[in-house]
Amino acid sequence: MKKEQIRGIIAMVTVLAVYFLLVLVIPFGDVAEVKISIGFTVLAFAVAAYAVYIAFVKKPDARSRFYGFPIARLGLIYLVFQVVAGFVFMALGAYIPWWVSVVVYAISLAAAVLGLISAESVVEEIEILDQKLKKDVAAMRAIQSKANQMASLCADPAVKKFAEEVRYSDPVSSDALAEIERDLTAAVDDLQSAIVDGDNANIPALTRKASAVLAERNRLCKLNKGRETK
To answer: 44, 26, 48, 112: which is closest to 34 by C-alpha?
Structure first.
């Protein structure tokens, strides 16, 4: 268990202990109201702890933590509301029927739980889209890396120009581009082999071929995006 997780647990336990101490010290009159408020407040602590868990502990990477802040904030807002409302109803227990507090507590609990479920679903959807985007740009990133390496190894201006063309090409792939990108990868691999082997005679022709395949890939990419926007 990490130090920050231990600190979080200690903070939560400390706040809960202070809450119980205040409940015991302050002379609230209605015993039934006190029991009801304590029960819902303990439940609120559990909900807040779970919100913090799914926000920061369940997926501890930096991106998940960034997306998790709204979830943690929602749980903590509910906890603060329940604590404040609990003290108010316990103080006014002699004047307000116990069922009123139960209705308020139940509505706030339901709102918090539904909010957490909705927020977690949104975060999961965003993470799925992020993973898909990483996968979609992987092919062109690999080609870009090879093109940059070739430009550093070869003094031919055409090779350097090709590397620039790859750099400014749309990196996002799609199923419609799978075949042309396989052809582009093969053309880049052939050019890379020629440069590494010092086959200067074939480098110009292979560079032109790779540029032509890249141009066709870019044309299909624009065409495909134009269809998607219609």
So the answer is: 26
- Of the pLDDT bands very low, low, confident and very high (cuts 50, 70, 90), residue 186 is very high
Q: Torsions phi, psi of 170, nearest 5?
A: -60, 120
What's this model's pTM, rounded to 2 decimal places? 0.58
> C-alpha angle with apex 134: 131 to 140, nearest 5 degrees?
155
For residue 31, the model assigns a pLDDT of 79
Q: Which residue has the tokens 């990483």?
A: 134
**d(C-alpha 100, C-alpha 201), whole Å:** 88
What are the angstrom distances between the C-alpha of 190 and each of 155, 183, 196, 208, 210? 17, 11, 10, 12, 9
Q: Tokens in use for 178?
A: 């799978």
Q: φ and ψ at 199, to 5 degrees?
A: -85, 75
Q: In whole angstroms, what is the distance from residue 99 CA to residue 91 CA?
A: 15
Residue 86 pLDDT exceeds 80:
yes
The C-alpha atoms of residue 192 and residue 216 are separated, in whole angstroms, by 20
Alpha-carbon distance of 74 to 51, in angstroms, equals: 8
151 phi/psi in degrees, rounded to 5: -65, -30
Of residues 79, 76, 97, 91, the one with CA closest to residue 41: 79
